[in-house]
Amino acid sequence: MSDNIQNLQKSLSERLPQCSVKIRKHGGVELNSSKENLVGVLAHLREHFGYRHLSHISCVDWLEQNQFELVYILWNYESRIQLFVKVRLARENGSGISIRHLWPQADTYEREIAEMYGLPFDGNENPRELILEDWDAMPPMRRDFDTRAYSKEAFYDRPGREDAKDVRSVISGRSGEEIPEIAIPYTRK
Amino acid sequence: MEMNDKDTLTIVEHIKNFARRHSLFVLAYGTGCGAIEVPPTMTSRYDAERFGIVGRATPRQADVLLITGYLSVKTLKRVIRTYEQMQNPKYVIGFGSCTINGGMYWDSYNTIKVLDQYMPVDVYINGCMPRPESVISGFIKLQQLIKAGKADGWKKYQENLDWYRTNQKKVIKNWNMPDYNW
Amino acid sequence: MREKETTLYLGPQHPGITGNMMVKLKVTGDTIVRAETHVGYLHRGFEKLMEVRNWMQVFPIVCRICVPEPDPNEENLARAIETLEGREVPERAQYIRVMVLELARLASYLLWFGGQSGSAGLYTMPQWSVGDRDYILDLFEELTGGRVYHMYIWAGGVRRDLPEGFADRVLRVMDYLEKRLKHYDNLMLDNSIFQKRAQGVGVIDREKALDWGIVGPPLRGCGFKHDVRIDDPYLVYDKLKFEVPTETGCDVWARALVRRREFEQSISIIRQVMEKMPGGDFYNKVPNPLHWKVPAGDVYVKTESARGEFGYYVVSDGSDKPRRVHVRGPAYVHGITLLEHLLQGANLADVSFIMNSLGTCPPEMER
Amino acid sequence: MEFSIKGMLNPLLALQQAGKRPHTIQFPFEEKKVAERYRGLHFNDIEACIGCGTCSTICQNEAIDMVEIHPGDSESAKPGDSGLRPRVDNGRCCWCALCVEVCPTGSLSLTSHYNYVSEDPDSFLWTPGVSNPEGRKELSFVSDTSHSLLDYARVPMRELEGKERIKSFAEVVLGYADEEAQKEAARCIGCSICTEVCPVHMHIPEYISAIEHGNNEDAIRIIYDNNPIGETCGKVCTRRCEEVCPLGARGEAIAIRWLKRYATEKAENADMIREIVNPEIKPPNGKKVGIIGAGPSGLTVAYYLALRGFDVTIYEAKAKAGGMIMYGIPKYRLPLDSLDKQVEYMQSIGVKIHFNTKVGEQISFSEIEKNHDAVFIGIGYEVPYTIGIDGENLENSIQAVNFLRDINADKHVDIGSRVAVIGGGNVAIDAARVSRRLGAEVTILYRRREEDMPADWEEIEGAKQEGVIIKTQAIPLNVVDDGSGRVKGIRYGNARMVTDEKGGRPRPELIEGDEHVLELDTIIGAIGQEADYSFIPEDLKEKIGFKSGRILTNEWQQTSVPHIFAGGDIVNRTADAISAVADGYKAVKGIEQFVFGK
User: What predicted TM-score, i.e. pTM, was given to this entire model?
Assistant: First the structure.
C-alpha cells in the first residue's frame, strides 16, 4: 500500500510538475495547485489517474492569512488512494473556478460555498439560493461572522434566567480577592 | 340551555370539545428532527390512533400542527403559512427544547429560539427529542386542555395578530404571503 | 401543439416527501419536464456552531446531522479526532462501535422499508417495520441511554461498556428481525404491486453514477461494488466476513434488493461481532474536556452509512475548537444532482417513490 | 411485465398475523420501563454539590445557570462551596449528559424520569434536586470516576528514594518537568473554589491555567500579585486549597502547591524574578514603616509597602531573613538558596533589612516607634513549650524548634543514635526526619491516632518511607535518667481512645499497667511554641490587647494602639506561612489606610 502511494506521488510529480505533491501524514496524497492550473490538474487526474469519484469539495476560511482554501477530495476506485487537491484563493474579491463540467455534483458544492462564504465561482453563475433565504448579513460561514451576536440581535431569548451568577465572581466577591488584569484572560469562562 | 356563568362552558361547547379532543387530526409536516419519533408514535408499537390521533395530508384537514423541534427561518415562513391555512379550532404542540428556548441551536444564526413569539403554542413536550410516550402525554394534555376550554391558542393568534405579525416580519425578511381569512 | 407547462411545488409540507424539503416540478400532464430540489429548511448552521464550541461540545451536535442514522456521524467525528491525535482505540471499543453502526444501519433500513412501501401505498409495511425498528431503539436505549440520539461513540472509544446480558438481547432481536424479513418480503418485495411500481423506474446509467459521486445502495444497484467498509476499511471491518451485494437493474427495484440483501449481511456482521467481542477497556480517556486541544492538521474520514459514504472533513488549527468540520452526506449528491436528473421525464406519481429509493435525507444535505 | 400468482397471493400472507397479540405498548395505561442508564431529567444531590459550576461551563447549550436556591446562599455558604447550584433550562438541554460526565463530586445525575408536558413554557426551568426531590430514587445515568471525563489521578511527583534521602539534606521533592506540570495543570476545572480557603486568596485557577498554556512567566506574575514568597509556599505550604479541590471529593486534588513551585522555580534567581514580575514601584511617598521580624508576614508587609512607595525597614534578630521558614523548616524541604533568592529580590525593590538586630537589645522598641509612621510586629512563635513531665530538663532532652534552628544554622548537634520525638505536628515530623538524616533511629511518640496527627499526611508518609517509627496512642510519663544527668530512656503508657462526652474529638486514656520504657539517647520535644513579647514596654503591653498569648487585632491587623500592627503566628492560630502572608497582605492595606487617614 505504501509502495502504491509512493509510486503515485512519484508519477504525479512527474506528470503534474506545476503542483507540489506530498504524502499526507494521515493517509492519501496531497497536491497543492494554483488557481489557474486547478481545472487542468483535476481534469488530468480524472482522465489519466483514474480519480473518477469526487468525494467532497470543502472550503476553509484562513482569516489570519486572508485566504480561502478550497479542498477537493478525490477517490480512485481501483487504487483506493485518497487524493487531496488544495488551492488557496484571495479572501477578498477572490473567486474559484467551477468544475461542474467535470463533475456535475460540484455544482451544488460550489453554490453552497458561494452562499456560505461569499466566494463566487467563475463558470457557475447559478443564481439560486441553496440553503439560506433572503439572507442579508455577511455570509455566515466566514470566520468573522459572529453567530452568537447575530442570533442575539435577530431572535428573542426567553426571559427568566437573568438571576444566574458566575461562580468565579461569587467566590472572589465573598473572599475579597481582587483579580489582577494579568490573570483575567486565564479565568474560566 | 345557556348558562350565564362566564366560566362555565355551554353544553354545546362541551359536546364540541368532546368531539374535538377525540379526533385530533395531525398535519403530516416534519418540521424538524423530532419528526423521527412521530412514525413510532403513529405505528404499531405505540399506536396513537387509540386516541383518535391520525395523520392528515393537508392543513385544511388537520387540527393539530406539530412543531417537531427547531424551526429555521425558511421553515418558519412555511409553517406560518400552513398554520394560517388550518381551520379553527387548531392546536399547536411544541416538541422538545428547541421550541421552548432555542435548545441546542440557541446560538444558531438560522433558527428561531422562542416559538411562542411567532405563533401560539398550546402544549410543550419536554425532551430532545421527546419519546413516543412523551408525545402521547402531550396529546393527552392537549385533550385535557380542550376539555377545560383552555386550548385557545388559535383565539389568541387572531386577537393578537398584529403582535405576531410584527415578530414574524422581524425575521422573515421577504413577506410575500397572502393573508388568510379564517 | 406544445403542451402547457405547469409548476408544481412538492413540499416542504407533503406527506410523501422524505423530510422537510421541497421539489419544484415543471410538469406537462403528469410527466415531469424539469425538477429543482430546494433545501435549507433544516439548516441550523451546524458547521458554524461547531466552530464556536470546543472539541467535546461538538459531540452532542453531530448526531443531529442525520436523524434516522446518527451513529456514522459520531463515528466520523471520533475517528477524525483520533486520527489527528494519533489516539488508540481499544479493540473492544472498535467492536462495540461496529455493532452500533450496524444496528443503526438496520434501524435505518427498517425506516426505509416503511418509507419506500408507504410511498407506493402499501401502508401495512410501515406499521410493521417501524414498529420492529423500536426493538433496535430499545437496544440503543439500554446501551447508550438514548433512543434516537445516542451520543455514545466519542473520541477514544465509547462512552459506557455493554450492560450485562446485552449480547443475548441483541442476538434475540437479530433472530426476531431475521424471522420478520420473510414477512416483509411477502408484503413488499414479493408483492406484484411493489414490483410493478419499482421495476424500470428511476433508472440511472451506471457510468453516470460512477462519475457523479453516487454512493451506497444506489451505486451498488448499478452493479458497481463499492463499499467503504471494504474499500477503505475502518474499525475492525477487515476482520469480519460479509458480502457487498450488488444488483444490475440500476432502478428502484435494484436498490430495494440491495438494501434487502444488506439487511441480512448486517445481521450476520452483528452476530460475528457478538461472538468475537474481546474484553478489556472500552475507552481511552481524552484530556480534560474544558481545555482539550487537538493537534493541527486536516483529515477526511468516511463511514459507510445506510445511504452510502458519509464523510467528514475536519480541520484543526491546534486550538481547543475545530477550525472546520465539513460534512459530506451521501444525500447531498443523491438528493440534489441525482434526484433532479432522475425526475426528468418521470411520472409525477413516482416522485416520492424515487426519492425514497435514493435515501434522501434533508438534515444531512443542509446541516 | 406479467402479474405473477405469487406476487398477488404473497401479500395475503400478512393475514397470518391476524389474531396475534399486538405488541403495542398501551401507554399511558401501561408504562414501559426505561433503560437502566436512560438519560432523563436531571437530579442534583444538593448536599453533595459544591457549586463549582463545571456543568455550566461544559454545557454547549448554555442550559445550565448557577443560581442561589435561597437568596443569600452564596453569602452564607461554607468555604469549599460557592453556595450556588445548577439550574437547568429544559428549553435548552439536549440530555447529552456531558454535565454528568464532568461533575467532579458526582452529585449531578440524570434520572429515568423524562415525561413532562406543560402549557407553560416557563415551567421548563428546573433546579434539579430542588424541583424534583423524588429524583433521588430514580437515578439512572450517573457519574462514575471510571467513566468521568475528568482525570482524578494526580501526576505523581518524583521524589528521592527513602534510602537516598536520609543520606543528605538534599531536597526530597524533585519538582515537575514541563510536561508533567502541564499535564497536571490540565486536570484543573478552573472553578476557583480553592481561592476562598487560601488565606491570601491567591489567584489559583488563573496561574494554573497559565501554566497549562505554557505561559510560566504569566503564572509567576499572577502568583506575585499577592504572595511575595510564592516559591516558599510552593514548597512548604499547608495548602488548604487542596483540601477543598472538587476533584478531591472522589479522587486526588490538583497538586496546587507543586504547580506553584514549578512556576516560581522557573525564575532561577532574584534578577530573573525582577525581570519577569517587573513590578510597578510607586515613587516614594515619604512615609516610613518599621517591621519587627523578617518572617513571612514581615516580608509581605515590607514587599507590598515598598511597591507602594513606603520607606520600609525590617529589624531581624537573626543573621538571615525568613523567620520560621528559614530556621524552622529543614533544608530538604526548603533549600536555603531558594529563600535567599526571594529575599534578595525583595531587597532589590527597596526593602531594607537590618540583620542581627534584636529589638530590645540592639535597638529599643520605642526608638522604632518614634522613627516610623507605623510599626508592624511579626515576631512569630519561637519559644518552645515544655512537655511537662519529670526529667525533661535533662541535658540531652532538647526542643525541636531549637534543634531545627541549630541544624539550619549549620551548628553541630549531637543526638546520638536513638532519638524519640514527642508530638504529632509538622515540627515533630521535621525533627524526626532531620534526626534520620543525622543517622539516628527515630521514634515518634504521639498521644492520639495517626489520623489525628496535625501534620500533613504527605509528611507522615515521607517520614515512614525514611524509616521513622511512629508510635501512636503513646503518652509520655517521665524521662528515665541514667544517674549521671543524662537521658537514658522515656517511660510511656499505651492509651485507648475514648469518645468525648462533650462531642469533641476522641481523647486518649491511659491503659493502667501498659507501660513501657524506650531506651534512647535524645528526647526531642515538639508540642508547640509561644512568643516572646519581652521587648514591648510594659505600658504599651497593657494597651495592646492579648488573648491566650496572642495579640488581638482588627480585620486590618491593627492593634488597639492605632500605629501598631501585628500578624503571623502571634495573631492567628493556624501557624503556617500562608496565613502569615495573608496577615501581612491585610496589614499593608491597614497601614496604608491608617497612614493616609482613609
Answer: 0.86
